[in-house]
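A quick aside before the break. I want you to see a complete sequence-to-structure record at least once, exactly as it would be stored in a machine-readable document. Don't worry about memorizing anything.
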Amino acid sequence: MISGKTIVAGIVGRPVAHSLSPLIHNAWLAAAGIDGVYVPFAPDAHGFDRLAKGFRGGAIRGVNVTVPFKEDALAAADRASEAARLAGAANVLLFEPDGRTVADNTDGLGLLRAFAVQAPQWDVQTGPVTVLGAGGAARGAAAALILAGAPKVFVVNRTVAKAEAVAAALGPKATARPLSHAVGALSVSTAVINATSAGLSGAESLDVALEKTQDAAVVMDMVYKPLETPFLRQARELGRPTVDGLEMLIRQAEPAFEAFFGERPPAGVDVRSLALKAL
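That is the input. The structure line, written in tokens, reads:
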């Protein structure tokens, strides 16, 4: 039930109708008995700044932000967390009652928690990690890995200039590699993360020599539709442990929920099963 005290949060993106975030957050709200609601917002391609300004003052408690507005979200904030600054993007905006906007990035934390759930044997500090891609998702993943203690992160991309720009922004622990010369990075990495859109339904697959990875190297794909991408299928056929994008989506939602509604998601709600049914 919506009341005069209902806390409103949501997700901003374009497109956003496909998002599973409303399903996840509203399931938690219902189970916790919180007077709150989580709804989607889809401004036009140039409308994010107007939307963010309109939410200032706390009428909306906060929003998650997805493509293509994550960089806009960081630019709209008065204050940003270290994770958001290093990632160069924000996936969470909080609208304070005094009119200030605070940016955070929980994508990296979600990635690390997904590894902890689906590949608990993996330790980020034991060796290099390869991140495929040079967009905002790749930079966010690489930033989180560095903050968590990864000794080296290889940023691999078809256009090496883009990978070099990301590596330069992240500092000495990040190194750029072109996709055509990725074997050296793959062969020494303890994990390989696909942060590109390759593998999405209808998108081209990613041509990566996963057979060159170590037997124990963990392979992750941020894409969750389909849940098993060609990239993850190849990894499983090689016997590599895997982490899927749905687990990351759920785990990045946990700290966002707490920021919006003031308490952790309730235990015992199988949001993964709910999301799988929706998929």
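Two observations worth writing down. The first strand starts at residue 7 and ends at 12. The radius of gyration is 19 Å. We'll return to this after the break.
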